[in-house]
Design a protein that fits this description.
four-stranded mixed sheet, methyltransferase activity, transferase, about 450 residues, about 45% helix, lipid metabolism, 17 helices, Rossmann fold
Length: about 450
């Protein structure tokens, strides 16, 4: 068969109800579709087989991670062009209806028969095994228990500190940077991450001798910066053994073991409050909607009256029908198992319901797009080494996840916000200056 690409293109356009914006190259080396565009490469018939078994995003994700599906050309352009088929046309209800129509077409017996003929399937066939990088649901029980959260965090973070060094760079900060100058004007990822850490410290009004709790401390960058630059005594907690070991070495190398403690601990297990300030940077996405009220209440209880919380968190856009919201399958299976995003309004409301007074909300989504593009550039520049340190599939997961996320921030499909909240005492003295944004300089 020397015309698989032409037949694939016709089948895809029938399913999608729109012309394909990218070119296709099939396993038989045939090509079809518009010239001078990125090329969607189906290296193996198994890519289509995966889509037949799991129509939609999960089937495509498995094909990508396994290497059955690839893109030649500009990855960002290809993702942007293909996203426009389903997710960016018209209002939300229309976008959802297009996605639903495409999935329905993939399940149509005639379409499935044509696809099976194209890949040479006759009679019953077993589904292709998922790539080994997919999260194995070995845990049971309700979401966001102590054990389940620890295993979910391990899936994402315990993949090798050397790998994360390649992607994140020397800062080892895995959250949105704060770009005072964009890359086009000479700004660097390292400068932007340092600026973010310092911005958090200034928003928290840290002073020498105060106690800081950093929830989800990662590789220790925030506690190190706060101790070194602001003289605080800091406790960083993480559920990742690999992160904790790395952070403890950094603390020892910096000569700060008398100021900084790193624990493998869940925020629900902390019993040595109160603290003067709490930072939670890129951690609350793991909490889950069912546990968020508990999270907010626990942090409120751990703060002294007058203490500040800086909650740095990714947010999704509100859905017309919130009951219909579902977690992204690719992210859930391959990146952040059990992770959930909430609209910023809900986050603010739940913090206030826990007793906090929210004093400032800063939206910085464009900063995250620049950060993610920096991480993708690091990964691509060290691709062979990244593959050796993890696996080809794991490297492909991170490349797709970060590139697609950069576009999501750029297109305002998701955002990220720093919420500054105070445990205001009963007498109402918040400790905030009249010019509350004095950290802006």
């Amino acid at each position: 068969m020397a015309d698989a690409a032409r037949r694939l293109t016709a089948l895809a356009e029938e399913v999608l109800g729109a012309p394909l914006p990218v070119r296709i190259r099939a396993w038989d080396h045939s090509e079809a579709g518009p010239p001078h565009t990125p090329v969607l490469v189906l290296r193996h018939r198994r890519a289509l087989h995966r889509l037949l078994w799991k129509p939609g995003e999960l089937g495509l994700a498995r094909a990508w991670v396994a290497g059955d599906l690839d893109i030649e050309g500009d990855l960002y352009e290809a993702l942007d062009l293909m996203a426009g088929l389903l997710w960016e046309r018209g209002p939300a209800a229309q976008r959802q209806s297009k996605a639903a129509a495409a999935l329905k077409a993939l399940r149509d017996p005639a379409v499935r028969s044509a696809a099976r003929t194209l890949i040479g399937l006759a009679g019953p066939a077993l589904p292709p095994a998922p790539p080994r990088e997919e999260a194995r649901r070995v845990w049971r029980g309700p979401l966001h228990t102590l054990r389940r959260d620890k295993e979910a965090i391990s899936h994402h973070y315990d993949v090798g500190n050397d790998f994360y060094e390649l992607v994140l760079g020397p800062s080892m900060v895995y959250s949105c940077a704060y770009w005072e100058r964009p890359p086009a004007e000479g700004g660097t990822l390292e400068d932007a991450q340092r600026a973010k850490l310092d911005l958090v410290c200034r928003k928290l009004a840290l002073r020498p001798g105060q106690r800081l709790l950093d929830v989800g401390c990662g590789w220790g960058s925030m506690v190190l910066h706060a101790a070194r630059e602001y003289g605080v005594r800091a406790v960083g907690i993480t559920l990742s053994q690999e992160q904790a070991a790395y952070a403890r070495k950094r603390v020892a190398d910096a000569g700060l073991t008398d100021q900084v403690e790193i624990r493998v601990q869940d925020y629900r297990e902390i019993a040595d409050g109160p603290y003067d300030a709490i930072s939670s940077i890129g951690m609350a996405e793991h909490v889950g909607s069912a546990r968020y009220a508990e999270y907010a209440a626990d942090l409120h209880a751990l703060l002294k009256p007058g203490g500040r919380l800086l909650n740095h968190q990714i947010a999704r856009r509100p859905e017309p029908d919130e009951e219909a919201y579902h977690v992204d399958e690719f992210i859930d299976r391959y990146v952040f198992p059990d992770g959930e995003l909430a609209p910023v309004g809900r986050t603010v409301a739940q913090l206030e319901e826990a007793g906090f007074e929210v004093r400032d909300v800063e939206a910085i989504r464009e900063h995250y797009a620049l950060t993610l593009r920096g991480w993708v550039a690091n990964l691509e520049a060290h691709w062979k080494q990244a593959v050796r340190l993890t696996s080809p599939g794991r490297a492909r997961v991170w490349r797709l996840y970060m590139a697609a996320s950069a576009l999501s921030f750029e297109r305002n499909r998701i955002g990220v916000n720093q919420v500054l909240a105070v445990r205001t005492p009963e007498d109402g003295t918040s400790g905030m200056r009249l010019r509350s944004r004095d950290w802006l300089g």
